[in-house]
Design brief:
With about 290 residues, the chain is an alpha/beta fold. The chain contains nine helices and ten strands. The structure holds S-adenosylmethionine and zinc ion.
Length: about 290
């Protein structure tokens, strides 16, 4: 956890700042003495005691998503995303010289996209940046903390006020995760940008049945823009289309990592997937939308 990431955080109990944890310290403490354990893997659970009504992704769902992403199928998306986030960070940071740019990854999951952005950023003009990754799943954060040890990886519910100072973030990234428009607007600098990745209608339609995605409503661009309209204006929308060749194991991971993973009976799934050919063609269709605060 880099100091510049901790510096942007606020204690969810009292709203005051955190102290820099010393190397080897096992808790993150605010200046009023509220203390949150730093897990062995390096993430911090700020929700302690608060509880949450959201069902978090299970360890199996998280493992499936990580395996699918690590297979590299969505790397073309990550490359375009890194370019967009990199220039948003650089443009915003140009207005506050002398500070380290801050990226908030809302619903960071296993941190794969954040890692891809970090790895490509020196070529995007922003030499370095601090990152805060929020997710409600501690299973996901265990992996995220290993992938992005410099980031502050925090267990947090995105529908609660975010434990981040107002006007601090140069970019908020949301890849297939909940969007709390008012909180994203509060934590962004005026020159900051909200970057949202959503699937387009038709995303993976070829395997929708096998992957238990039938009946899941793909989000329309207009709905996204409307849902954020109180706080953000759309600046650009970049479509990314990726032709995929998927092995049965890939299709299985897609099935388990999505909403169906919450109830997918493994045995039932095994039956459906047993009949799959060696490779299945599918098309991933995304939109990367960039919004500026109103
Ligand atoms: C589809 S995954 C995407 C994860 C990551 N951005 C990626 O693309 O690999 C959605 C993520 O949002 C998280 N999530 C869902 N509801 C949340 C909430 N209320 N607060 C924080 N995270 C949440 C889940 O735990 C999950 O990691
Ligand atoms: Zn406190």
């Amino acid at each position: 956890m880099e100091p510049s990431a901790v510096d942007a955080l606020l204690c969810p109990v009292c709203g005051l700042e955190f102290m820099e944890p010393l190397p080897g310290e096992t808790a993150l403490k605010c200046i009023d003495g509220h203390s949150f354990d730093i897990a062995r893997q390096g993430y911090v659970n700020l929700l302690t005691g608060n509880g949450t009504k959201f069902s978090q992704d299970t360890a199996d769902m998280v493992a499936a998503r990580d395996a699918f992403l690590d297979a590299g199928h969505y790397r073309p998306l990550a490359e375009v995303l890194a370019a967009i986030v990199g220039s948003a960070l650089a443009a915003s940071a140009a207005h506050s010289p002398g500070t380290t740019p801050l990226l908030l990854d809302a619903g960071t999951g296993t941190g794969w996209y954040l890692q891809q952005v970090r790895e490509s950023i020196p070529v995007q003009g922003a030499d370095t940046f601090a990152a805060v990754g929020l997710d409600i799943s501690k299973f996901a954060l265990r992996r995220a903390a290993r992938r992005n040890p410099e980031a502050a990886n925090l267990v947090w519910d995105l529908w609660q006020p975010l434990p981040v100072e107002a006007g601090r973030a140069d970019a908020v990234l949301v890849v297939f995760a909940p969007r709390n428009a008012s909180e994203f607007a509060r934590v962004l600098r005026p020159e900051g940008r909200l970057v949202v990745v959503t699937p387009r209608p038709g995303h993976l339609f070829e395997i929708a049945q096998e992957a238990g995605m039938l009946g899941i409503q793909a989000e329309k661009e207009a709905n996204l823009v409307e849902s954020l309209a109180g706080y953000f204006a759309l600046e650009s929308a970049t479509p990314v289309t990726i032709p995929l060749l998927l092995a049965p194991a890939d299709v299985r991971n897609v099935a388990l990592m999505g909403p169906a993973g919450h109830h997918a009976a493994a045995r039932e799934l095994a039956g459906t997937l047993a009949g799959l050919p060696e490779s299945t063609r599918a098309t991933a269709e995304f939109t990367i939308s960039t919004f500026r605060p109103r």
